[in-house]
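Dear support,

I submitted the protein below through the web form. The confirmation email said the job was done, but the results page showed an empty box. After a refresh the structure appeared. I'm attaching both so you can tell me whether what I see now is the final result or a partial one.
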Amino acid sequence: MTTHILGYPRIGEKRELKTASEAFWKGKISEAELQQTAERLRAAHWHAQKQAGIDYVACNDFSFYDQVLDTLCLVGAVPARFHWEGKGDVDLTTYFRMARGILAAEKACDCGHDHGPSEGVPALEMTKWFDTNYHYLVPELGPDTAFRLASRKPFNEFAEAKALGLRAKPVILGPVTFLSLAKATAPGFDRFSLLEKILPVYEETLRKLSAAGAEWVQLDEPVFALDLSAAQRAALEKAYARLAAAAPGLKILLATYFGPLQDNRDLFLSLPVAGYHIDAVRGAEEAAAVAGRVPEGKVLSVGVIDGRNIWKADLVPALALLNGVAERLGTERLWVAPSCSLLHAPVSLRAEQKIDPELKGWLAFAEEKLAEVRLLADALAGKDVSAPLRENAAALEARRQSPKIHRADVAARAAAVTPQDFSRQSPFPQRQARQHEHLKLPAFPTTTIGSFPQTAEVRAARAKWKKGELSNEAYEKFLKDEIAKTVRLQEELDIDMPVHGEFERNDMVEYFGEQLEGYAFTENGWVQSYGSRCVKPPILFGDVARRAPMTVSWSQYAQSLTKRPMKGMLTGPITMLQWSFVRDDQPRRLSATHLALALRDEVCDLEKAGLAAIQIDEPALREGLPLRRGEWEEYLGWAVDLFRLSAGGVKDETQIHTHMCYGEFNDILPSIARLDADVISIEASRSGMELLRGFADFKYPNEIGPGVWDIHSPRVPSQKEMEDLLRKALAVIPRRNLWANPDCGLKTRGWEEVVASLRNLVAAAKALREEN
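What the results page shows now:
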């Protein structure tokens, strides 16, 4: 019985990759030292897989930033603005410049090129990887894009694994998904016209891997979980006819995940590869039908362990599903695997010492999922696994029966929600008039998205407080001092609508979850969000209720320091849902309803405390969209309703803001408009305001703040750059509806760049006021 995985977490159990990468960026360690850390992590991850009994360890799944950027480097598609010489491999400096932009300080770097304007060069755009909270960097492809093999990474990492005596399966993003995820740099350009150019690089890669001794290579084509266009279907047929013949001794495992195949099943199984991987967690209902259609002599990898959540698998139905497949294929043609890469799960439960032991018994992180894969394979092979199966069943039954899961009062309140609870008192035009009169803001009002730099000093104070080394009184004084400094700074910079800075918050979801019933937290449950950015999603295990006001005292204190309208900051119900590990024993919609009601109470309390504006962030609204369009209407219906439920209890004069970032929003604009937020702030700088074309065509009715500063890059944009972006926005957004703000929160940035960038932002807004 063959076992394998599609990928493993890269960051390390203690986030070693994050620490090393950030040290390298700051010049504290050399590239050689960074590479040594990466090599140690890869060896440790492979060892964990081997120890668990996984037959084929995954290699080339490691990345310094993200796998789409790695593929871009593999095929040599570096955009011209990064001034790569085009000789040899893409170097690590160029790699990180594409991810993080080029700073002004690098203008005259050792490559000898002028990197453009003094403010540096913007990074590649970033967006969400399918419907996950993982981000990838968007390749830029146009008519002049040339491809060539420009990275030895797949070969080097396979050689590392081979030298350790391991059977390794290289993992590579497939060519059609790569082209599908890319951005066309010229209007109307067909990215799939580049297929003929890119395929020779893939063919060469496969030949080199075969020559190095690889038996299998995994080509990931998650586009099979989408509604495929005719161009994508044609590209898949053409690509795999070529790739299957590229290296006759190498077997291709074609992998799809994140959803069922549905109408793509026949195409998927017709491609001339040696094996297929399906997601049998999200597509359990079609596993038997797929197994019945697998061509003779080919293998089927069945992903029965959920790679995206942290609950113990229910092994009895998983085993039944696998037995059904085995009856059709035989065990020799059946591979057992997780549904997708384990990148989306924390590394190991071993380091979790403080979590409730009862709850811990319900969980499985990446390392534990390896054991589940092996256990299922052993069961199929006829080994006696009755004892661990009984343990699994007992843990699942204990979870079902636990009194910690359900609350009658929460269920009753959710059942009592009425249609009137989803609406504000008056339509937007009436609210807008009252808010303008109440707030008295200038044209192009300036604000930020909420957070300010979480410095080492802030993190150290929080750590000391959590350890009991800093008293509650001392910690509260520290936070109030930080808030006061930040409010003064915003007044000095002349920010029209300040925020308190969120220094008390460790994370925009975790902070709220800690104050809600039904949530639990880990010490080391980190997952990668993008690059070195890691998040520790809370575990939503039961019915959710608010214990007490969560943010009111901090916002009220901040408002007492200024006469300007302070904006309260909350995370919305859909983002709380999406960015948590969510219980799987009831519909997600019901859990989101509980969250919306808890947040509605907080919104009303903020209004009572004197806050004139309240922001309910929903950056994950688009991320939660089902991958198939046929399922959009149902999801958007309840998701939008629940945002409205959280915001619907306030007066017309109270201005409700929301924030969204790093996703494609133009295809859901009617639903965004139906949110009926008074102001939406949205990521727009990396795309040069391209996003606003859709808002203009749609005639978006409410106020909007398109981001004019990409906060995921350490560069400081100039006043002129921000003015130009605002003018682009002004061409499509009415003057009375336009705000000026950054793309996202500022917690990851340093104070020096924040002050300089905000000064330029305010100056840009004032310049436009004089022009208009």
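Response: this is the final, complete result; the empty box was a page-load delay. Residues 107-118 have pLDDT under 50 and may be disordered.
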